[in-house]
Design brief:
Low-confidence stretches: 1-8
CATH topology of the largest domain: Aspartate Aminotransferase, domain 2
Radius of gyration: 23 Å
Number of strands: 13
Bound molecules: pyridoxal-5'-phosphate
CATH superfamily of the largest domain: Type I PLP-dependent aspartate aminotransferase-like (Major domain)
Distance between the termini: 31 Å
Strand order of the largest sheet: 1-9-8-5-4-2-3-12
Strand content: 5-15%
CATH architecture of the largest domain: 3-Layer(aba) Sandwich
Length: about 400
């Protein structure tokens, strides 16, 4: 017999000493196998440890080709890649660049680093990507570029964004740090504007610990980006001849071989994450107050990159249970869920010291108060693991009064 509190340990919430529902950890990330060990050892023994290892060029070629772009420039990380894309697009002091507030801070600090002014514009309530109508209203005679982030791996509305960039003669830079391999209407992201910028930082869906990449179809922009990343050298030029003001943003062969192997695994991983996310969406549709963003996938999103499985938690559908308590209870049940970005990035102190324009962003503010995320590796689990996650959510739902009664 079950009492209201539950005699069986499975019935009692893990946060109150019961047995966690999810007994197996989510699939480990990053993945690696013997192929990586062999490849790393080959770089080691080649003694070409710097950025001139042939695997770097091979990665650039294959990563660009995979995304349908002609040129790839491998870089130290996804922050300098944005800075370099902005620099070679001629953006600097006096220019305004429209950025979303729901993203990692680098999407906007890169703009400030080149001396331009980030203009924060609110997101769409369902995709949490830049709202094209609000972007259009925010364009001034100083607007030179848009850094469009494919948040969580969901492509921004590229029909509207590309069209407004064309109409207003504004440069489009796609921040694809969440969206390796994603597609909008069967075209890979990163190829809709001047540049697609990628990150291979440790948390990302392709990673070498650190790393980045720019892709572009413009040979001239590609050459200038490469030159900046390589101390202002010209391709084919002499080692000690420096034509432009550059820096060193090269990656190593060690990173490149890991990324080459991951690029081979990426199509299967994209498919698995899409399948699992659809499965999870189906299950969540029966639970009120926990809604994926978006609740149903736009059919123009032919591949969602799923860096995150993003949801909105509505405490009013959970008897007023605060989000933090909901998340803590689920974490105790073994679910690796988090609350997401704590605030829209314009709230960071650094922007008090740099010129910014902040448009009203009620959707971004609301999202940060309601968001809950599952990381991408959870979408590589099998369906029975996701069933356990859903069971854990249902279990927490069953104990919502009891949880609410606990004082902080
Ligand atoms: C991670 C990330 C970056 C920065 O990439 P790093 O490689 O960490 O420098 C930029 N934009 C977004 C949206 C990111 O998530």
């Amino acid at each position: 017999m079950f009492s209201r509190e539950g005699n069986m340990s499975h019935d009692r919430l893990a946060i109150f000493g019961g047995t966690p529902v999810v007994s197996r950890p989510a699939p480990a990330w990053p993945l690696f196998d013997d192929k990586d060990r062999v490849a790393l050892n080959e770089v080691l023994e080649s003694r070409v440890w710097g950025g001139y290892h042939e695997a770097v060029g091979e990665l650039e070629k294959r990563f660009a080709a995979f995304h349908g772009a002609e040129h790839g420039i491998a870089l130290a990380n996804g922050t300098v890649s944005l800075e370099i894309a902005l620099t070679v697009s001629g953006i600097g002091p006096g220019d305004e660049v429209i950025v979303p507030p729901i993203t990692f801070v680098a999407s906007a600090t890169s703009v400030a680093r080149v001396g331009a002014t980030p203009v924060f514009v609110d997101v769409d309530t369902s995709t949490i990507n830049l709202n094209p109508a609000l972007v259009e209203q925010s364009i001034t005679e100083r607007t030179r570029a848009i850094v469009a982030v494919h948040f969580a791996g969901h492509p921004v509305d590229l029909d509207d964004v590309v069209s407004l960039c064309d109409r207003h003669n504004v440069v489009l830079i796609e921040d694809c740090a969440h969206a390796h391999g994603a597609e909008w209407q069967e075209q890979r992201i990163g190829t809709f504007g001047s540049f697609g910028s990628f990150s291979f930082q440790a948390s990302k869906n392709m990673t070498a610990g650190e790393g980045g990449m720019l892709i572009t179809n413009d040979a001239n922009l590609a050459e200038r980006a490469r030159s900046i990343s390589n101390q202002g050298r010209r391709t084919g030029g002499a080692w000690y001849e420096h034509q432009t003001l550059g820096t060193n943003a090269r990656i190593t062969g060690f990173q490149a071989v890991l990324l080459l192997n991951q690029l081979e695994r990426l199509p299967q991983e994209l498919k698995t994450r899409m399948d699992r996310a659809a499965y999870l969406r189906g299950k969540l549709s029966k639970i009120s107050g926990l809604v994926p963003t978006p609740a149903t996938l736009d059919e123009r999103v032919t591949i969602h990159g799923y860096h995150l499985f993003s949801m909105k938690y509505d405490s009013s559908a959970w008897s007023g249970l605060p989000r933090e308590k909901f998340v803590a209870a689920l974490q105790s049940e073994g679910v690796p869920i988090t609350t997401g970005y704590p605030h829209p990035i314009y709230r960071n102190e650094l922007f008090q010291h740099h010129p910014t324009v902040v448009q009203p962003c009620p959707e971004a503010e609301a999202y940060c108060k309601s968001s809950v995320w599952l990381p991408h590796n959870t979408l590589l689990a099998d369906e029975s693991w996701l069933d356990d996650v859903v069971t854990a959510i249902t279990k927490v739902r069953g104990a919502v009064e009891e949880l609410s009664a606990v004082r902080d």
